[in-house]
């Protein structure tokens, strides 16, 4: 049998000091009063959607957070009110949020499942089961790099312990020795499904042994036991010894959510037996027994808390309703204006330009860190990070296990905690594994939290086809991301643009998807200034002036469109080539201005034609410049099929100089 550090059973530590037990008891009362009032407001229709009551589980949030410093981080889940309250959130702003008011924590844009306050270290409740764990790995990474002995605590349910990110995050936290405490609130049900039907193994705590992470299974309804276990786990993490897992056994008293629209699988007897182990009553009895509190003081405390909750409700009711304008303003952080980029420079390759951008930004800003697979000594499989670990060390150039969801989530968490991570996706097709962290987390955080936090994160990597890697290593996915509010999508077409745009992406306060066309990796070099420079986000460029027709081309299609324009010039056809450079936000005016001059437009991209970026440009031009058009907007792209492997087939699928030239001729109606 392999020895491991896991200890199942009650925590052994010094007894909880009485003053601390009183404060935990008071915190539990506040949480319960808040939740009971919320349930009433939900029934009244003042709280909408859904909310998940924490009643029955109060000891966990109250006693864990009693061990935390103000500058520690917590991540929570859908049943998150208790965690926010215990970490110091203001009840009035919480109530205002539940009522969808501008004065709420998220300006009324998030609601119950997204209450957060980064300034209090609260990374928010979360609507996606298990998400707190990768996000908190990023907070813990930030804590570790800052060396201020901060810790992060990820709260999650038993159901979440079956998610891949639970295992990925435990592994990552273990190999990186992150100051991260996992607190599983095992209330024995996930929605309506009892744990026995979903969860293998004798315990969730026992799973930590596989990662050589110490763990404890404790009575989560015993404030003293929770406090002692948390104290031990947090001290362990704070002292640099790495992660710790606590499994706190508990029970929720209410239905899964306040909507109460599910069949209740639990028996009355089972509920009654857990109500008999009420964490508040147990703490109260203990305090009375130790003569720390009496009935009079308890009544006074309860009255005080009731008044605080009523004041919070009044604050919420008096709040204002958010406007659509305010909501729209909350999607993106403003892009900083940039100076005019210099011209000229040495001839370097596309991938060298990307490497130089990262190196110069890492030299300029110590908060820039790199995260990804094989990005260290190997330099990434396309050499984009070559030499950077030698310059900046493994602390800042962080090689990851193959866990896209978790290392992208780690990047999101570190960005929320103030770093500027650049995350490499080894081949962009692998974003599918991380799509929750990109779309539901990175893209939504600023908005869900009322337009306040920034998520300065770059997700970059090789994209598209051209090197015979077949259908799972060759996709052009820009339309997925461009369709997601909150993401910036950039696709450079030259070494000059790659460097300037990546520098802008790293400096930007939004999550940026930075697509590096594999066809451009292979060979293309161009002039790139040695000094750092930025190219504005949302500004396209006219790559070639022309008068007969506009071609909007993206990424690897730009050089092909330019070659087609050159070829057609010999036949007396004058083609204007526009590279939007940023796909979202799109420089609409540059395109419209060109169309008003040429009256014809072709859009060329590597991705499948249907439902793609070209459709967006075509529709935008038809809506905004219809009167100027002399021919239908035409798209050139791949046929609607996955990328084939065979050489000849791949070459037939990706648009070429010839197919772009042919489309231009068709639109101009010249043979
Ligand atoms: C990824 C994901 N899958 C499913 C859901 C729907 N859902 C919300 S809560 C929940 C049960 C979660 O159970 P557990 O983690 O034990 O937390 P509990 O509700 O018991 O506190 C489910 C299935 C979701 N929000 N996210
Ligand atoms: Mg559960």
| Structure classification | alpha/beta
Could you report the average pLDDT, rounded to the nearest whole number?
A: 96
Number of helical regions: 23
Number of strands: 21
Q: How big a fraction of the residues is strand?
A: 5-15%
Helix content: 40-55%
Q: Can you tell me about this structure?
A:
The protein has 671 residues and is of the alpha/beta class. The protein contains 23 helices and 21 strands. The chain has a seven-stranded mixed beta sheet with strand order 10-9-11-12-14-13-19, sandwiched between helices. A five-stranded parallel beta sheet has the order 1-2-3-7-6, with helices on both faces. A five-stranded mixed beta sheet has the order 16-18-17-20-21, sandwiched between helices. Helix 19 links the parallel strand 17 and strand 18. The radius of gyration is 28 Å and the shape is elongated. It starts with 17 loop residues before the first helix and ends with a helix. Residues 1-11 have low confidence and may be disordered. Magnesium ion (MG) is lined by residues 157-159, 187, 189-190.
